Amino acid sequence: MEHVLKWKAIRDQAIIITGTTVYIPQSIYQPYTVADHVRYIEKADLKEPIIFKSTHPDQWGIALQDAIRANMKDLLDKYDNMLENCGPSVSIQLQWPGYRTWTKQIPMMNLQSPPGPITRAELAKNIAMCIKRFIEDKEEERMELEADRRWRVGTCHIRMEDLILVSLHHVFVGSWQPQLRLHTPLSENQLRCLQAQAPLSIAC
Question: Does this model's pTM top 0.85?
Answer without folding.
Answer: yes
